[in-house]
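Minutes, project check-in
Item: structure for the 159-residue chain
Input as provided by the requester:
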Amino acid sequence: MSDSSRPQRLSSDFPHSPNSPNSPDFPDSPDSPDPLGSSGSSGSSSPLDSSGSSGSPDLWTSIARLHSWLEEHRPADREDALLLRVLKLSEEVGEVAQAVIGATGQNPRKGTTHTWDDVRSELCDVVITALVALRTMTPDAREVFGAHLEGVVKRSLGS
C-alpha cells in the first residue's frame, strides 16, 4: 500500500486507555510528569550526577563497571566482543519496537502486552548498551560522547 493511500492515524484513533498516547503516562503528553521532577534540573540530584550525592552511582562510573564486568566474562576475542556489543544494540532497539507495539496494542493477535514504562525501560537499555559499546571502543568514552553531544547541540540549536 502506498503512503498516499494508507489511512493516517490520528491521536484520536487510539483508545483512551492507561497505555494510549492520550494518557498522562504517554511521553510528551501535556499531563506527563516532568522527567526532572518539579524542581527541574536545579537543586535536584540525579543518578547521572558525577557527584553521586543521590546515593546512586554516576553514569560513567556505572558504564565503566559494566564494561569491566563484560570484559572479565567475554567468551569472544576483543574484536569479536566489540562487534557483538554493537550488534547487541540492534537487539535492544528491536525490544523498544516490540514494547511500543505492545503498549499500543497494534498486534491484534496479542493485544496490549506492554506499558509505556516498559518502553522507557527498553530505551534505557539501548542507551546503556550504546555507551558500553562506545566504552569498548575507547577508554575516553565520556570525552568522545561529550564532544559529540556538544557538536549535535551546536548544529541543532545554533548555540
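Outcome recorded: The radius of gyration is 19 Å.
No further action items on this chain.
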